[in-house]
Amino acid sequence: MIGEESVTSIILANTIMGICGLKDRKIIWANDKFLEIFGYSRDEAINKSTIDFFPDQEAFRRFGVRAYLDNIHRGTALDEEGEFVRRDGAHIWCRVVGRGVRDADLDSVWLLEDLTEKMRSDASLKKKESQYEQLLAGINDWVWEIDADGKIRYSNAAANNAIGRRPSEIIGTTIYDLMSEPEGRRVREAVSQFVARKTAVSNFSCAVKHADGRDVFLEINGKPILDDKGVVCGYQGVARDISDRLRAAALERDYEKALRRGLISVANAMSLTIEQDGPFA
Question: In a 3-state reduction of DSSP, which class is residue 249?
């Protein structure tokens, strides 16, 4: 039957956390994970000063002050993240948790978690997010995201060009707040139908109030955002200012109407002349 001490030894040896025991800041004991994190064999690590695990002597000194003077000697644990150095010279980022112990062979025990890959992933994600934001910032169209109730959750800087409002001014408000009351009711009803049908929004036109009070006509295209259960929880898409296009189309229609009226007037006049003078006058 395995004794309690043997079970503890097995757990410590196979845990996913690096664990080491120190005496006077030298390694007395280390589990396999600790050796793996720092790239040492057991013979190389045992009795090694932990100064070799720090980027420089000053970092070693500062850590000692925080760990021992500020925490362990006061009976509290140190829990922080910091930079360390592997045997091959590679710098890694670890979370360390340490506490003093009353033992003839050890004065403190330390748990370490290698966060290097997580930090790299986070840094890569932040870089991609930054690149994405820069890409969106350079797009002339207004890129937006709303929830199922029409509340604006995201807006790129192009909102300022489209409706004269910065993203910080409109995020948290609803799209209906940016419209006249009748237009808001019309658009709300349309959005309710889009949500119920889970359909994309294609070339939907609406009028939004510019910060200066004038109406800006936008062409909306977007797609639904679904949650894990397939329920529409919002929409994301782009809005393009088509006010100039609509004004140009209206002018063209007015011109065509005026032209037709003019042609009809000319035709009527010619017809009247012919009737009065006869075809062979």
Answer: helix
> What percentage of residues in the chain have a pLDDT greater than 90?
62
Burial zone of 72 (CB within 10 Å; 0-12 exposed, 13-18 middle, 19+ buried):
buried
Q: Higher pLDDT residue, 259 or 210?
A: 210
Residues 6+ apart with CB under 8 A from 274: none
Structure tokens at 188: 């709300």
What are the E-state strand segments in 137-210? 142-147, 152-155, 201-209
239, 144 contact by CB (below 8 A): yes
User: For residue range 9-46, what is the model confidence (pLDDT) as tens digits?
Assistant: 555 666 789 999 999 999 999 999 999 999 999 999 99
Is there a contact between 112 and 18 (Cβ–Cβ < 8 Å)? yes
Distance between the two ends of the chain, CA-based, in angstroms? 132
How do residues 204-227 score in pLDDT, each as one tens digit?
A: 999 999 999 999 999 999 999 998
What is the torsional sign of CA 162, 168, 171, 173? negative
- Mean pLDDT estimate for the chain: 84
| pLDDT exceeds 50 at position 278 | yes
Give the largest Cα separation in the chain, rounded: 134
Residue 137 CB partners (closer than 8 Å, separation 6+): 156, 157
Strand order in the sheet with 18-23: 26-30, 18-23, 108-114, 91-100, 78-85
| DSSP codes of every residue in 60-90 | HHHHHIIIIITTGGGT--EEEEEEEE-TTS-
